[in-house]
Amino acid sequence: MPSISLKMNGKTRTGEVEGRTLLVDFLREGLGLTGTHVGCDTSQCGACTVHVDGMQVKSCTIFAVEADGAEVTTIEGMAEPDGTLNKLQQAFQDHHGLQCGFCTPGMVMSLAKLIEETPKPSEAQIRDHLEGNICRCTGYHNIVKAALAATDQL
Ligand code: FES
Ligand code: FES
């Protein structure tokens, strides 16, 4: 089996994968990073969103071997090393941006990328950016509020 090496949340991690192994399966089963969720089999829900070399990627849409040598950030890499939530995560907590929480890792990873590129996104930009992330609890309103709060617009 091919061996791959990634810079995962700042640390080098290696593992053996089959050519057909999806990145999300390698993260969850190979590396134990179960914060990245699988909510569909059709690349629609966004629960598996991570950052690969600075790009927002649905990790069920690429093979693990395609990420060989890449820098990958998952939800586990978002908080401070001592566990303190980052500003966006804290805003989700403060504004009830989650109900069951299943979509939350993908929402946070998606919004983090938006905020990195657009530090003060409008509500319309936030809603547009979340087009690829489904919240089956339909908690969108508070998710948008959390994003506005995290960017000091609430
Ligand atoms: S599990 Fe990847 S988009 Fe749904
Ligand atoms: S909080 Fe339940 S799916 Fe979004």
From TrEMBL:
<keyword id="KW-0408">Iron</keyword>
<dbReference type="Pfam" id="PF01799">
    <property type="entry name" value="Fer2_2"/>
</dbReference>
<keyword id="KW-0001">2Fe-2S</keyword>
<dbReference type="GO" id="GO:0043885">
    <property type="term" value="F:anaerobic carbon-monoxide dehydrogenase activity"/>
</dbReference>
<dbReference type="Pfam" id="PF00111">
    <property type="entry name" value="Fer2"/>
</dbReference>
<dbReference type="GO" id="GO:0046872">
    <property type="term" value="F:metal ion binding"/>
</dbReference>
<dbReference type="InterPro" id="IPR036010">
    <property type="entry name" value="2Fe-2S_ferredoxin-like_sf"/>
</dbReference>
<dbReference type="InterPro" id="IPR001041">
    <property type="entry name" value="2Fe-2S_ferredoxin-type"/>
</dbReference>
<keyword id="KW-0479">Metal-binding</keyword>
<protein>
    <submittedName>
        <fullName>Carbon monoxide dehydrogenase small chain</fullName>
        <ecNumber>1.2.7.4</ecNumber>
    </submittedName>
</protein>
<keyword id="KW-0560">Oxidoreductase</keyword>
<feature type="domain" description="2Fe-2S ferredoxin-type">
    <location>
        <begin position="2"/>
        <end position="78"/>
    </location>
</feature>
<dbReference type="InterPro" id="IPR051452">
    <property type="entry name" value="Diverse_Oxidoreductases"/>
</dbReference>
<dbReference type="GO" id="GO:0051537">
    <property type="term" value="F:2 iron, 2 sulfur cluster binding"/>
</dbReference>
<keyword id="KW-0411">Iron-sulfur</keyword>
<dbReference type="InterPro" id="IPR012675">
    <property type="entry name" value="Beta-grasp_dom_sf"/>
</dbReference>
<dbReference type="InterPro" id="IPR002888">
    <property type="entry name" value="2Fe-2S-bd"/>
</dbReference>
<dbReference type="InterPro" id="IPR036884">
    <property type="entry name" value="2Fe-2S-bd_dom_sf"/>
</dbReference>
